[in-house]
Amino acid sequence: MEKVINCFKRRPDAVSRLICFPWAGGGSIHYARWGNVLNGSIEVFAVKLPGRESRAKEPFFQNMQQIVDEVIGALLPVLKEKPFALFGHSFGAFTSFAVADALKRLHNLEPVHIFLSGASAPYSETRIKTPKRSDLSDEDFLKWMSSIGGTPPELLANPEVLKLFLPALKADLHVVENYRCNKPDSPLLSCPVTCFDGKDDIPHDLQAWKSITSGDFTVRMLDGSHFYLKDSGNEKIILDYVTKHLETSEMDYL
């Protein structure tokens, strides 16, 4: 499991776990830090994908199924131990949903809450009409990256760093751009789903996510653009919200 999961703070007595999925090109450190911030009742597992961090020498995954198979293969035993929730931003919203979908269909396991951020539902018109970016030349790709914000300008101006960063980003976008999933005829899940988004990001079809669950559905808009969640004020709002809802779901679970 250590290969796939980064956990800064082991909490064997935690009542629930929060499994976090990285954005495109992202690593696990941002979320792993949350383990130091959240209270002792929540253990944070940050998913670490091939091609980055300690897995830098491994080839990138080519499709969503590979991610789902690896994450479930690594986590299934521990997911059966205690309640868990999923959090994913952008590309991570798609991977967390794909994992939740497979867990329910194949193992009849369901999270107590799913937190989805910065992404349209995969079957929404908005998402289907999004232009493909992973095939762009590096130059055009960087122009697009600059336009959405969130990538430090000094990173975009540093060719050496970019050489390391671009392949992971393009590989993840390739996965998400080729991920197909039909709108569910009936909700697969019954847990609450919360969607977060930046008010200044390009508009996402968040309401379309409502189709995945028969449970409560909430949208929270926060100040900022695509990487609004990197802002410390927004991060505090998100973590307070996650904590409150996981503690409530723990009471329900008991």
UniProtKB/TrEMBL annotation:
Its EC number is 3.1.2.14. It comes from Dicentrarchus labrax (European seabass). GO terms for molecular function: fatty acyl-[ACP] hydrolase activity. The gene is olah. One of its GO terms (biological process) is medium-chain fatty acid biosynthetic process. The lineage of its organism: Eukaryota, Metazoa, Chordata, Craniata, Vertebrata. This is S-acyl fatty acid synthase thioesterase, medium chain. InterPro entries: AB_hydrolase_fold, TEII, Thioesterase. Belongs to the thioesterase family. Residues 17-238 form the Thioesterase domain. It catalyses: (9Z)-octadecenoyl-[ACP] + H2O = (9Z)-octadecenoate + holo-[ACP] + H(+). Keywords: Fatty acid biosynthesis, Fatty acid metabolism, Hydrolase, Lipid biosynthesis, Lipid metabolism.
